[in-house]
Every structure is written in structure tokens, then in C-alpha cells.
Amino acid sequence: MRTALFLLVATVMATPAAAQVDIAGEWNRDNHEDQPHRVPGAELGDYTGMPINAAARQWAESWDASILSQPEQQARPHPAQYSMRGPGPGVRIQKIVDPVTARLIAYTIAGMFGRADRVIWMDGRPHPSEYAEHTWGGFSTGEWEDGKLKVTTTHMKMGVINRNGVPSSPKGTMVEYFIRHGTRLTLLVWIDDPVYLEEPFVRSNDFIWNPGQNVGPGAPFETVDELGDKPRGWVPSWPIGTRHTEFGEHWNLPFDATRGGAESLYPEYMKKIQEMMKAMPSKPATTSAAVP
């Protein structure tokens, strides 16, 4: 009986858990979803589909892409809240296992813009104190749920969730689900930010298995002086009160319908848009202007 029990335990320990679906490998992003938001990036004033509050809207409306030309900004990586979104990335997901027990310790994800690569701890360790260091990659822990890898990330630096200035605060929490279907990997992202969001922001990304891809070592950023004609201390920005109306005008949308907010995510909002369209002027202005 002892021998039989030993063999049974050994068999159970040697058999992978049925709930686990391996996500390791080389993955290339499928760019079919929301392509303009990734390359070249969302337009100024396009906050559609985002449950942002007034504070986030004011931050985004004052953001100027020229700030990325400043030397201290040129080497800024994408934060975890956005790094899996784009542009790119082609990523390598790799398993880290205990060399003796073969127990899965972590997954690593390499290939982020600025090489703010991530570690997903799978060994049950707790998240650190709220006063611990915040990083571009954040602190991530993973657990299996019905064949899906659920990843919870905290301790993320302040960054963006869209490349048109929509911000994300250090107080945010991100939950991701990695769902593999053969050669396709779906990533569902849920961001809860009490500072800038009226309710959680949800979106998805898709990746395709690409065994011929090779994510090489990261290339360091090289900062250069791109603002030689500007005075010291100049910070690119739009003045508070700026109304970026071009996006709505280009797509013939009411300005208020482009400003996001939790209300705009639901089907009932279509009726409100229809009412706003009836009141639209025939020839709206075509430039950004500061509100007096």
C-alpha cells in the first residue's frame, strides 16, 4: 500500500494542472483592433470609449506631444498600463521554473517599448506595501482561473492609457486575463483608477504565436537636444481650457460626444448623441482654441 500511495503521489505531482494553459513563446501583436489608436496614436480630443473623469480630461486636453522631445522625456518607457497595447510590441513570454522541483515561479515578458519588461510572480508571494517603489512594469502576481491566467498589477508609475495624454495614476490597479486559443493569445485588460476614472476601463488586445520571431536585447535610449530654439524651462502644453474640436469635426460628431465619461459607454447614450447632432452647427470651427 505504501508503494501504491507513493506512486499515486508521484503521478499527481508529475502531471501538469489541468487548468493551466502554457502562454510561453514568441508573440507578435495583431494590429487589427483599434489600429489608429496604436500607430500613429489616438488623436487629440478623442476620448471616446473611455470612462474618464473631469480631472483626466483636463490633463489630456493640456497635453502636448512635443513634450516627448524634451531630453528628460525621450527615454521614458511605456508604463504597464499601456505597454501591452502598442505600438508593437512583439513580446517573448518565458517561464521561470525551480531547477529542482520544476515548479513555476514566474513568467517574464520581454520586448516592451523602453524595455520596461515585466515579471509575473506565480509563487503566491504577496504584493508589497503601498509605500513600496513604483516602477514602469509594476508588481504583478498571477493565478489560474478556468484555464486563463489572471494577473493583478499594482505599484505602477503614473503614465498614460492612451497616447494622446489620457493619464493613469500611481493609485491604479490593473487586472489582466491571458487567454490562449491555439496560436492566438487574447489579453483582456481591466484598469481601476480612483483618481482618473469614473469606472473601470476595459479593453482587449490580440497576439499571434510567431515562433520565427526573436526578441533581442534592448537598445538603450539616446537623448538628444531637439528643442534648441526654446528657452530653458519651457514645457510644451496647451493652456487650461483648450477645446480640441478637430476630431469631432473630422468625423462629424458632436463635441460633447468625444469627451468620454462613463455615461458614453452605454447603448442608451446613442439617443443623447442623436439629440446633440440635431443642434450641431452646419460649419463648426476647425482649430483648437483656448476658452476665455
What would you say this structure looks like, in words?
The structure is a single chain. With 292 residues, the protein is of the alpha+beta class. The chain has a domain at 25-49 and 66-209: Lipocalin, CATH 2.40.128. Helix content is 18%, strand content 25%. The protein contains seven helices and 13 strands. The strands form three sheets. A nine-stranded mixed barrel has the order 1-2-3-4-5-6-9-10-11. The longest helix has 13 residues, at 2-14. It is globular. It starts with a helix and ends with a strand. 27% of the residues are buried.
Features:
single chain; 292 residues; alpha+beta; Lipocalin; nine-stranded mixed β-barrel; two-stranded antiparallel sheet; 7 helices; globular
Tell me the number of strands: 13
The sequence of SSEs as H and E is HEHHHHEEEEEEEEEEEHHE
Taking the sheet with the most strands, its summary is: 9 strands, mixed, barrel
Briefly, what CATH class of one domain? Mainly Beta
- Indicate the proportion of strand residues: 25-35%
Q: Which strand order spans the largest sheet, edge to edge or round the barrel?
A: 1-2-3-4-5-6-9-10-11
CATH topology of one domain: Lipocalin
Radius of gyration (CA) equals 23 Å
Helicity, as a percent range:
10-25%
> Treating each run of at least 4 consecutive H or I residues as one helix, how many helices?
7
CATH-defined architecture of one domain: Beta Barrel
Q: What do the pLDDT scores average to? A: 87
CA distance, first residue to last residue: 86 Å
